[in-house]
Amino acid sequence: MARTEDEKVDENKLRAFQDKVYQMAREEFGTDDEGKSNNVTVFCLDRTRYWPMHWFPVPYDFDPLPPEEEERVLEARLTNLSLATEEITRHLKMREFHKRLYKGKVDEKARRPEV
Predict the structure, then answer these.
(1) pTM for this prediction
(2) Per the domain annotation, does 72 fall within a domain?
(3) Residue 88: Cβ within 10 Å count
């Protein structure tokens, strides 16, 4: 359901909040050797505007890994690929629905396609 501007999260407040949380993570967990990157990534998502995150973290695989760890890395990447593919499919179905809607070929009250 679409929200009015008044119902959406204030982007400036969210940015300020994320900056505070980022600083807390920096203090609690430290940074890389050069002090540039936090050891923990903090990301705040405005759910009044955006879909939830559709991915899983992928472990580093710089060095040779035991077979079970290699499987975990591959599984995480394949899961992410599958989730991304599902999102593209959903987007394309909704795009087609909207094209038909704006051309007047679909009743506005018609049920949206299953996605």
Answers:
(1) 0.69
(2) yes
(3) 10
3-state secondary structure the chain: CCCCHHHCCCHHHHHHHHHHHHHHHHHHHCECCCCCCECCCCCCCCCCCCCCCCCCCCCCCCCCCCHHHHHHHHHHHHHHHHHHHHHHHHHHHHHHHHHHHHCCCCCCCCCCCCC
Residue with tokens 């920096």: 26
How many separate domains does the chain show? 2
Residues 32 and 74 reside in one and the same domain = no
Terminal CA-to-CA distance of the chain, rounded, Å? 15
For residue range 35-54, what is the model confidence (pLDDT) as tens digits? 888 999 988 999 999 998 88
Identify the bridge partners of residue 38 per DSSP, sorted by sequence position.
31
